[in-house]
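Deliverable D2.4 — example input (structure tokens):
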């Protein structure tokens, strides 16, 4: 019976947004009332799953793949070179582009979350604390999607209500207002979310996930809201949480039988509804976007230091070398998809894992005070390197704040390659143009205005109050 209820409510939730072909189109709010969908605790829980369903890999992949390709210095464009440069040369997002789909899918999670938050108040819960947790889960997802949207599209509209979007033409908000809302949502989530996932459903938001994302938000926010010290402290709290620990072997992170593990903090979980929910392996990893030889050769291999040999196991875990074609491919999601459809890998996708948080703390400490923190910074880098088998970092390598920032940047590049972090890392540290422009990887990102993407033209045409980003 519970399964029938959940499927029925999901169907109702889907009808809220399935009929819009833009972002702010009319949907049938007069046909479904909150009382029908949120009249019981079971129904409300199913509605919350509906919010999560918009965050499954089948949706999440659109923008993270786009970000990985446009924001990673070590990709060869391959057959899709024209598409790779199109965003930065034509400045247009067409309805058929992945970027346009990304914009819509991020907004879909926010719309679902707003609907849930508007109606959850009428639901009777046996445990008031669980009701607060459910609200916190929706607010966490809303904040996370706004974080992606704002980093990619800048000062977009801020919408926190469930209203008839077809009758509303929201103007651009300010970055300050958007980040203030994210911080408020995430602080609520930190306070109300449980330490462990609800009912052991491991892809659900937890306090640790909220702490980690809040740390990134605070370290990325405009200067008047930026709080690197608090971000560093949040990273420390996650690291001190006994439920999180690095796996002994980096390679085990990509074992499909090890989907949920002690290093995972938050994932986009594969749905069993429909097909092609995971990474589109045929496009993303097989033919069109290949890691560079520079990246492959950058890992320590039988490097002798003080009589000790070091081999960084992340190279072969991350990059697959085809000895026949002599081409390089992704090896993380490639292996996770073996045994399924030949064109689609279907693992959960890491959104946040412990190694990310360890290196983020090192980055924050360096930004705060290199001289006062240099010993801990090197220790943090070495927690990650030692697990991989790489040559340990030292104060000789990390001799000042600038050199240390570059060491951490490269370490995150190696550790989190194919995990959709680099664009956001470079943006957080104001390094996008230096790394991806003509003096770096020459991927076409050469002007300051290009650090945000153009709002889809169809949305500008439908909403006279919406202003296009400068330069487009």
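Example output (designed residues):
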């Amino acid at each position: 019976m519970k399964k029938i209820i959940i499927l029925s409510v999901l169907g109702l939730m889907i009808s809220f947004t399935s009929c819009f072909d833009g972002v702010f189109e009319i949907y049938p709010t007069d046909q479904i009332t909150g009382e029908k969908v949120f009249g019981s605790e079971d129904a409300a829980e199913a509605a919350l799953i509906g919010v999560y369903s918009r965050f499954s890999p089948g949706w999440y992949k659109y923008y993270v793949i786009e970000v990985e390709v446009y924001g990673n210095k070590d990709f060869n464009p391959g057959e899709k070179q024209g598409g790779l440069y199109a965003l930065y040369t034509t400045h247009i997002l067409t309805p058929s582009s992945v970027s346009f789909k990304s914009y819509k899918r991020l907004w879909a999670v926010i719309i679902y979350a707003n609907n849930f938050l508007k109606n959850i108040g009428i639901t009777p819960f046996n445990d008031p604390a669980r009701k607060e947790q459910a609200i916190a889960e929706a607010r966490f997802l809303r904040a996370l999607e706004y974080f992606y949207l704002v980093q990619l599209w800048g000062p977009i509209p801020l919408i926190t209500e469930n209203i008839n979007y077809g009758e509303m033409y929201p103007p651009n908000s300010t970055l300050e207002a958007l980040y203030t809302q994210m911080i408020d949502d995430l602080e609520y989530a930190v306070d109300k979310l449980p330490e462990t996932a609800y009912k052991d459903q491991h892809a659900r938001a937890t306090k640790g996930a909220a702490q980690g994302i809040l740390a990134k938000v605070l370290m990325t926010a405009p200067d008047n809201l930026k709080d690197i010290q608090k971000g560093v402290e949040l990273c420390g709290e996650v690291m001190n949480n006994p439920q999180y620990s690095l796996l002994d072997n980096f390679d085990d992170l990509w074992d499909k039988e090890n989907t949920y593990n002690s290093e995972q903090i938050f994932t986009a979980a594969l749905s069993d509804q429909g097909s092609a929910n995971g990474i589109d392996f045929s496009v993303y990893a097989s033919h069109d976007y290949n890691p560079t030889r520079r990246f492959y050769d950058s890992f320590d291999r039988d490097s002798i230091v003080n009589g000790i040999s070091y081999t960084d196991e992340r190279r072969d875990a991350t990059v697959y070398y085809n000895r026949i074609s002599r081409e390089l491919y992704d090896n993380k999601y490639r292996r996770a998809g073996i045994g399924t459809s030949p064109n689609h890998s279907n693992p959960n996708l890491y959104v946040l894992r412990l190694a990310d948080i360890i290196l983020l703390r090192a980055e924050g400490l360096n930004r705060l005070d290199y001289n006062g923190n240099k010993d801990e910074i090197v220790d943090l880098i070495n927690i990650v390197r030692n697990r991989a088998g790489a040559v340990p970092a030292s104060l000789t390598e990390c001799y000042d704040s600038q050199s240390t920032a570059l060491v951490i940047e490269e370490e995150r590049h190696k550790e989190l390659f194919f995990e959709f972090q680099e664009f956001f890392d470079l943006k957080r540290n104001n390094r996008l143009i230096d790394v991806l422009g003509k003096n770096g990887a020459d991927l076409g990102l050469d002007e300051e205005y290009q650090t945000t993407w153009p709002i889809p033209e169809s949305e500008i045409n439908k909403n006279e109050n919406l202003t296009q980003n400068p330069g487009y």
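Residues 1-170+445-472 form a domain with the Serine Threonine Protein Phosphatase 5, Tetratricopeptide repeat fold (CATH 1.25.40.390).
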